[in-house]
Amino acid sequence: MRRRDDKSKDELIAQQLEVIRTMTENSLSRMGSDFWGTPPETKPERPAGPPKASEPAGKAENGGAPAGQTADRSSPEAVPPPEKMEDLQAELDSYIGLSAVKREVKNLINLVKVHQLRRENGLPAADLSLHMVFSGNPGTGKTTVARLMARIYHSLGILSKGQLIEVDRSGLVAGYVGQTAIKTRKAVDSALGGVLFIDEAYALNSRSDNDFGQEAINTILKAMEDHRDELVVIAAGYDGLMDDFIHSNPGLESRFNRFLHFEDYTPEELVQIFEMQCKKGCYTMEADTRQAVQAYLRAADTDPAAFGNARGVRNLFEKVLAAQANRLAAMDSVSREDLMKLTPSDVQAAGHDTI
């Protein structure tokens, strides 16, 4: 009888482990890596559209295609309709931190609106350069805001499709003469009607005699001139390196005159990002658990370059979920409340290997 009871208990534990594993995987897959948006139940709904290339290979946000690929928006049915500007601004306001960036984005929106009104009323309006430079450490929201800008420009009628295509040096530069221009033009073509987001753009300017990065830069500059009504380019990377990159080429200086600096998150904002991830994943965190997260962030190496700002918070969150799964697996029975609750011990267990 004891062996039969032990077998039944083992089967029950195995079933619980499978349920915990499935729920954890589903929670993580729903969240993606967008830390700044509101929870699913309150975030303004975007009209359904096809996946879009937005994150480097293996890190596509919100189910998007890896960098180098692009959603098929060639048919009218594939292009999502413009969203309401008030919804987009509400989403911008919901982002944690980024106060200076929010202010600059709103200024730009107002500038574009007035520019369009002047044209509609037969008044002269100078050409606007909407290309931008985003500078800041990793995990500060540059890709997220770039994606939002593409949607804003689509809503304002500036861009016909509003997709964001993210590339880096490897997505633009080839290893042989003549191939870089072809590869870069292909990336540009996929971004027409939307935004071409160049991450770590300064890597194109290695200043080596055998390097083809300058060919990619020249091809992009020509495309910015030839497709001024169809293409917006956002170049992104670290602060000082981006300044050096833009000022290394008169063509870049003349086309990029809008700079947005993304500040590192404060410790309190990092905790708020963790709380946001909990809400999005239907997890509950009591006051003592919040204090444990604060203690972890104080003890951990949160140097922005090493910790990765919001990316570091996501890594912590995933480790906490793994610790919770281990704790629940040792319980005889698991309730719905247990599956949702994160405890201080989960946070402490997550930090053992990293602090």
Give a description of the structure.
By secondary structure, this protein is of the alpha/beta class. The chain is built from 14 helices and seven strands. The chain has helices at residues 2-31, 85-94, 99-120, 142-155, 179-191, 213-226, 239-246, 250-255, 267-280, 287-299, 304-307, 310-329, 336-340, 344-351, and strands at 132-136, 164-167, 194-199, 231-237, 259-262, 284-285, 341-342. Strands 2-3-4-1-5 form a five-stranded parallel sheet. The chain has a two-stranded parallel sheet with strand order 6-7. Helix 1 runs antiparallel to helix 12 (310-329) and helix 12 (310-329) packs across helix 14 (344-351). The radius of gyration is 23 Å and the shape is globular. The model is unreliable at 30-76 (pLDDT under 50).
Portion in helices: 40-55%
**Weakly predicted, low-confidence segments:** 30-76
Our Rg estimate from Cα atoms comes to: 23 Å
Mean pLDDT: 81
Global morphology: globular
Layout: helices, strands, pairs:
Elements: H1 2-31, H2 85-94, H3 99-120, E1 132-136, H4 142-155, E2 164-167, H5 179-191, E3 194-199, H6 213-226, E4 231-237, H7 239-246, H8 250-255, E5 259-262, H9 267-280, E6 284-285, H10 287-299, H11 304-307, H12 310-329, H13 336-340, E7 341-342, H14 344-351
Parallel strand pairs: 1-4, 1-5, 2-3, 3-4, 6-7
In short:
By secondary structure, this protein is an alpha/beta fold. The chain has 14 helices and 7 strands.
